[in-house]
Protein 1
Amino acid sequence: MRGMTFAEKVLSRASGRQASPGDIVNARIDMAMSHENSLLVMKAFGEMGASKIWDSSKVTILFDHRIPANTVKTAEGHKAIREFVRGAGLPNFYDMGEGICHQVMPEKGLTLPGTLIVGTDSHTTTYGAFGAFATGIGATEMAAVWATGELWLRVPETLRVRMNGTLSNRVSPKDAILHIIGDIGADGADYACVEFSGESVDSMSVAGRMVLSNMSTEMGAKAGVVFPDGKTNEWLSLRTKKKWEVVSSDSSAAVKDIFEYEMSDMGPQVARPHRVDDVVPIEEVEGRPIDQAFIGSCTNGRMEDLQAAREVLRGRKISESLRLIIAPASRETYLDALENGVLADLVRSGAVIINPGCGPCLGAHQGLLAQGERCISTTNRNFKGRMGSPDAEIYLASPATVAASALRGEITDPREV
Amino acid sequence: MIEGRVWKYGDHVNTDLIIPGRYLDDYDLRSLAAHVMEDLDPSFSKKVRHGDVVVAGRNFGCGSSREQAPVALKHAGVSAVVAGSFARIFYRNAINVGLPVIVCPEAASRLVDGDIVVIDVEEGVLVRPSSHTRIEFKPLPGFLLEILSDGGLVPHMKKRCLK
Ligand code: SF4
């Protein structure tokens, strides 16, 4: 008999029926996350005539996109959400100061393997790095989840991405996933569940795997999963007492496609404006002058990212022709980086450190780009207008590449500095 | 039945192009609609008429989960989006806010800017009267059509909550 994929197993359990690709199932949700757009969820929730949240222990709300509030409107929004949270007695609420949703959720032990998680944010796929089936949804349907605990989902086909070999020095999981997105394309994994495996993935830290799952949404994936191992278990056990059951695909399960990559010879990769899948080896864009460099976001704002930047910058000053902004992904990362001296080194090199949160990633505040400016960033999207003026350019790269580029004031191969 | 003028765009029209992040703290639907498609086609919101149809290539609506993208299109007067394919969250959001989305690669490649089309969402038929073109597409599953005909997920749930 044919085995089952991870997606089939999780969605069969959650819907109480045999779930095969293409089926639309009504699934019970294990965890529902929303950030500032909780305001839209609340509005729809009220308009639906719903009054009670189905299970308050399964709802998480936090602020990360616009913190501290950048406008009076945002402040009013935060205030209304805080009042709602208090009224509903929601235990999982994280006000500004904790960090980016996709970092804080795992840190609080809310992304357990084998669970079904939805979030009103496209990078909810990040929790796949812990073996959860996690996907982004809209605000209105989140209101229906709050009311009923259920949501219709199409059972996805599965794509396997095997990453063989080990990444070379100053080449990171970000370079790997950019390369893969460049190859598969921005819609190459549309509606699919992507399973990452292979030697490179095995040797990656949990933080590195989060980069893969995070960016799987940039190839259209519904979920991007790495099956848990000892590292995952250790990481999670430090943060929660809850028990979980690991779910993984059977090797005999039917998958739609398998992609294989050899990672050993790959150098740093860069996505050119304005498409995430317009990816080239760094040699093709080296030397372009840069006005702003950003290290942070749910993709690359973790400790190992800050450390990679420090390794490149330590004892040296960034170019006077540009500014370097750094946002740790969470309070936990921020504290660690304060205590181990990484932030002090980065500040000495000329970086401006901003509070944990999304920062300039979404073009709302804290470092917008002017017309004609060029930015190199560790974030996940380089769409036109994403970080400010629609006439600015965004290049996506790894933390080491961004740091090296900050050093020289132009796009620079981190292996050369 | 939908009838309107076609506004034709290419592949990978992302949510930042449909409604840029800089406007997302605005919860007024009319002012959101005034900025719809601004970074792609600055005069779109002024030219679009009630009932018009956006036609695009592959991966329409890729990017963020912002529901404001289909909301802004709908409030600008757009009555349906026809595309070769859709990014999944946009697709869900569109149905949930009551904006019909039609996957039809054939229409996406054959229709041109300025065409007048008539669409029967339930039957799965798109007609361009000027050239007697008739294109069939797979209609949405019944329960999604129900959400659409209720005007979106909010009124749909309201019916359910009141039952
Ligand atoms: S850091 Fe950027 S991509 Fe990540 S959740 Fe925040 S805005 Fe979205």
Note: The CA atoms of residues 50 and 77 of chain B lie 4 Å apart.
Protein 2
Amino acid sequence: MSGYRLPNPARGAPLRFSFDGRPFVGHQGETLAAALLANGERVVARSFKYHRPRGIYGIGLEEPNAIVTIDDQPHALATRVGLRDGLTARAVNAWPSARFDLRAIHDVFGRLLPAGFHYKTFMGPGRGWNLYEGFIRRAAGLGRIAAAPMQWRTQAQHAHGDVLVVGAGPAGIAAALTLARAGCRVVIADDGAYPGGAEADGAGVLIDGRDADSWFAAATAELDAMPFVRRLADALVTGLYDHGFATAIERQPKAGLDQRLWKLRTRAVVLATGAIERPMIFVNNDRPGVMSLAAVRGYAERYGVACGRNVVVFANNSAAYADAAALKRLGVGVSAIVDPRRVIASDAIACVSALGIAVIAAHAVIEIAGRSVEGVSIAPVENLDAMRALDCDVLAVSGGWTPLVHLHSHAGGRVAHDPALSAFLPVADSRAVWSAGACAGRLGFADALADGARVGAIAARALGRHAEPLDIDDVIVRDAFALDLESSFESPRREPGGKAFVDLAADVTAEDLRLAAREGYDSVELMKRYTTAGMALDQGRHANANAIAVLAGARGDTPGAVGTTTYRPPFAPIAFGTIADRTGQRLVPFRTTTLTRWHQEARAVMYDVGGGWRRPGYYPRVGQSLDEAVAHECRICRAKAVIYDSSPLGKIEIKGRDVVTFLERLYTNRWTDLAPGMGRYGMMLFEDGRVFDDGVVFRLAPDHFLIHTTTGNAEAALQRLEYHRQIVWPELDLRLLPVTTQWADIVLCGPQARDILAAVGTDLDLSREAFPFMALRSGKVAGISARVMRVSFTGELSFEIHVAARQAEQLWLALLEAGRAHGIAPLGSEANHVLRIEKGFISVGHEADGVADPFDLGMKWIVAMDKSDFIGKRSLLRNQRDPAPRPQLVGLLAPDPSIVLPEGAQILDAAGARGRGYVTASCMSPTLQRSIALALLEDGRKLLDSEVRLFTPSGETMNARVTRPIFFDPKSERMRG
Amino acid sequence: MSVTITSLGAERLVAVHAPAMEAVPFLARFTTLQLAAEEFLCLDVAAHEVAAVLDRGALVVDTGDAYAGWMLNGPDARDMLARACALDLDMMAIGAATRCLMGGVSVVLRLLPASRFELRVERSYAEWFELWLRGV
């Protein structure tokens, strides 16, 4: 046993919890780590690679060891898990427990697992990789994801302001007060439950005569009373992005929520993110009982937990002396400070000596014998032969302070090395992002407070506000000693061997870093990737500064010359469930027409298709299969009449003096000769000549057109038109508006379509002469105002009827009623697909596949090459001059008419070695009573009536005969009737 | 959470695309939302009434069937919207309208007095959007 509870009558209610299956008691308000320490639990984890026993090292986010699984949630830090009654915690990376881990044998073979071993081992024999991979996967990683879905309740929320202040320590609160009093909208976020940071944990700080707790309480109350201040507690800012956007994760924001993801947008940011204490480097510095000095003090002050009965401090700076003194005053036994410095400030020595703490100057901790701290071996720095043992059960280390500059770097800020602090500090730049307090190198409480106020005033001025000085006259900090840091210190070794860890979380030793440098991986980026230093869950927060210093030593260089890697969001791991925002109905948007309910009630099989639309695929009658239903619908269409819902087709109205010029440039067609009241099938290309979209364009008036697009491209086509209107040709006079959802679009088609339309009642002259193919007429249909167009996608006589969307069902029912005697039926998209294949009509996404141009598709009739220019014209000319074979649209017939060629089947060359085309669309044709297919085939038009060989997606081969790509009504007499 | 979500039902809406300098003085007689530099949405009016006051070159289209709308009302309406969209609602003037994204879908948002909000989406998204909105 080591840790124990200090006498503290103000403890919270007792709580029961378990760790690795053993029961413990903690108290309300404690973290899991504090409760484990209080119960004397030393071994709480196993290291990543060597499975060495590890204890709790830190008190917050800097903790590198104590990773646990809480109930079903892996990868929680014990130092950040609030205790609750019944909590179940297990160590990760250990089996069966942290105390006894079978994989500790890895440490025995540790010499075979140096840095970069994974690049050198398991290389041969190569065929053994199937065996190696399984073993490595089982051995690697940390926690296990639960098989059952986690009960994870999250929410996302947006917030805005003038300034985001990150951190509610002295610098952060001072900055927030200054800004808020200047009238700025302030969002202040801190990872802790209470403001104050590390420094406010206890006695020793007086601000204008008030203790720190009182001052922070008053400051917080003032901020909370301001309506334009939003204060987020228990909220860790995880990323700072461009344009003042930041994300924060709030833990347990309210009942019923586990986490809330804040999306914060402000005009400026003040970073008061503090600093974390650095470890010291010596052999076996990872043993349970080695802890951060700030953490040991924090456990005593915040939780009344003494981490040990006899604490020895190992520090290379004078600020640690204040912590040692505070610890002693709290009743924790501190026997000595081991300090490698020869010259130490006399006031620091006097302070601790008065409390009975011995100062052992010019000495270092050389190693820890045993599997946990039961004493340390120390020696004069320059005489290792004089090594002796020093009794203790906790070694509290302080190697200096590393400012947390991550958020500053996230949005592109640079850092520079400060030799006095042996740390990288943010470099100010022109962005509205400032750093204040410890993260800017102002480490003392008074300095941080003043710096926060100063930076707050600067930020307020930048936002056009006047800030008054913060009304603080006097700040007294007991035992405020100058840092006097001796740069990142590594203890000398009496003999080679032994592991002196630099990155505890990634199990990377100082020797690993020097090995990397010897092998040529001597840049900080290569060092990181080769050794994995800085790549564990903590992203090297506690380790990076020391790692850079060791690498610098190996290179004979300075840490400033080595530099840092690039810090990227997130600052700490985020659960995917938090980003996913699962409390709301996070459905993928779907779209419906005003006829969708009718389709569903008619038991249509609904498909989710392009653009998010839900469309009827087919309407099976009782007992009908898909093929039977499709065949039935096709036969009805060819023999009688069908109706189908074509509402999702894109529709755009475009008008203006220059509309014809615009369309002539965008489309391959000519539009100048299109008469009002008529339409033309048009095609738009990409700049490289590939088909972008197609659809019928109607001229409503000399300067007014109605454009149709494909369903899936409706949005893209609108954006394309807007882009060219606004950016490319802003001088053209034209305006456009999408009207896709204003109009429902019902298509009545089949040989009896005209009769049915007349029967439903219309004031339009439906004769072929008065209403020719491709004409548009406006009038009444079934008493409803409508635009009616003669277009056809099935090859049958068709009337496409546009009515206001809310009247669609009325018209649909009227057509069904009028067509009942004619045997009318609804048509789904499956049958539509078959009918258009029979006619050889192309479909964007099938034949227009992102490769073919209109000439490839046999559509030279649609391209007015004599126009001066249009988008894609130059590329078409280039394609025509290119001697390489082009994919050309052809038809394919299987020798066995009952076999449907698979869509996607590859057409092979003569040698069977290369694909020279593929099947784009294929079906069983009820009209022809055999299978048919369309394909793109290199030089296909030269191969008519020849045999080709296909390779199918299922691995079979089959033959097919090349034919023309139109199987039904080649002269299109039916649709023009 | 205290928010009432009420459907706006069938509306008379007219979309206009016209140069702002030419259109704004004439559209001011209607309740008009400016959605983009040259794009407007007029409420509770017929297309022919709007066309009558504008230059012949303006594009005026009846869009009464193109939208579905809801009114959000209640003390928590603003907080609910803070979860739904990224707009800085504190900076919006009463009566102002703008387009924003909610759930990945374009929404016309209008701020009314007493922290009431009108939301309109393309009618094809209506069923999904109401599901999504009630789950926020």
Note: The longest helix of chain A spans residues 445-462.
Protein 3
Amino acid sequence: MFRELTCSSRWSDTSCASSIKSADSTSRWRLNEAVANDGHSGGDVQPSEGQYRELIQYMPTALWQVDTRAMRKVFDRLRSEGVTDFAAFLDAHSGLVELAKEIVRVAEVNRAAISLFRGQCAADLTKPVGYIFAAVPQALKRIMIAHFEGRRNHTEQSKIITLDGETRDVILSVTFPVPSEQPYRSFLTMLDITDRLRTEAQLRQLQADHAHAARISTLGELATSIAHEVNQPLAAIIMNAEASLRWLGHDEPNVLKAKQLTTRIISSAERAKDIVQRIRSLAARGDAERIVLDLNEVTEEALFFVRHDIDRNQIELSIDAAADVPKFLGDRVQLQQVIVNLIINSIQAIRQAKRSDRYIRLSIAPGYRDTLTFSIRDSGTGIADEDLDHVFASFFTTKESGLGIGLAICRSIIGAHGGCISASNLPEGGAQFQFTLPAAPPPPLVEKLAR
Amino acid sequence: MCSAPLIAVVDDDEAMREALCELVQTFSMSCRTFDSAEAFLGAHSLGRFDCLITDLRMPRMGGLELLRTLRSLGSSTPVIVVTSSSDAPSRSRALAEGAFAYLTKPVTRDTLLQFLTAALGMDPPE
């Protein structure tokens, strides 16, 4: 069935005496007859064969050819013994995964594979597969299950430990040829995504830093409102305490009244504490999180920061919140920030417009195809037609004071949540801003993503 | 005095209006609270309340508008504004509209007593 060929070019040099770059060969390369007998004969085979090997050798994807013969025998025996749920079997017999690390061997590797593992030559990598799964032993288990179940491919994001001890992030794919093609060989490829993940993490960090800076700036704008919110319960505490002292100072102290007033003092103090807590959470620089959130709840929380500004400007606020709005995955504080910014934006537009009808209308509703939408309409100035295209650009502002980062931050946060945001003018005057977010996947998938 | 003066307190913040009411009660005066200007106007009749203590910034009708409305109804009930905003323009506007006093939160018991007795034309507290 198989014949051995001595190849002038091959995947890789197995001799450690020569470097990776050496094209010299002493290795032998088993080749499937089907490949060798591809319609050519004799000398005609060699050049195309050589080109094929050259291609594999120099392709940028790290490639392993793995000899699975020993494993196939184990699989056959287990099947004959009636094992069908292989995942459960492996849970009960974890030793089999350990065994696989030893008896399944790498037959061939290409240059990219050697380079990825920082090896000197193919021989560093042509050994039992255990080293491939040193960082994530569970990956081997999942591959074995896919193999046993007769799937053609298995792909996952994983980690490896290079020969010099560094951990790298990779996308690992295994292809299991059907027995008629390649009965004893599996092909494993890896793509190093360490740098990509690092860049993504840096981008996320930058986005979070940017959002945090903007939040601090927003808190500054809201300082008057926040001071009012804190002052209110503090003033109540002082006044209740004074009244209480008065009742206690009588010749016959009114203890009942003093108790009642002390209870009120406690509840006002609790309120002041809650306010401080909310401000602290908005000011905190936390890592962006992804948890299941209810947009109606987040909106209520955001309103806390701006309600006083809305009242102070004699603006009528209405909220139309549908009951069947799907949940979404997101960062609570960042979404609060988006809603606060949009409302501040509306308040300012309403102040500029100086119309007699002053309103903000919020609407939260399920969107098209597993999405949810938030929209805010106001009776403000609207957006000049020439500005519609760049209201979300950084440092764009039509206000005398204002950095022009509020809406840019909104777009960046919504974008990072996989959603989109848009602005438009209303026929009756005023503007509408709307954002759409993808709904959270069903619970099992959420748990998986959270992991 | 045959009966205790009746004071109305209008504030949209529950803790605040209750606290004001408690202070008023320590002066041996009666007090009724309202959570909005509209609610107060609904219960108001000429001469019913001896003094009105009101917040300035409230949803819908604010304190100044309430003061104007009262005057347009022919009421001369003294109005004491109690607010958390201490800016000068707001103060002078309130006084120009005919507010008896403009106090900022928190109001001490002594201050409130002083202005309340003056508004009611009573003898100043000792």
Note: The beta strands of chain B are 6-10, 30-34, 51-54, 79-83, 101-104.
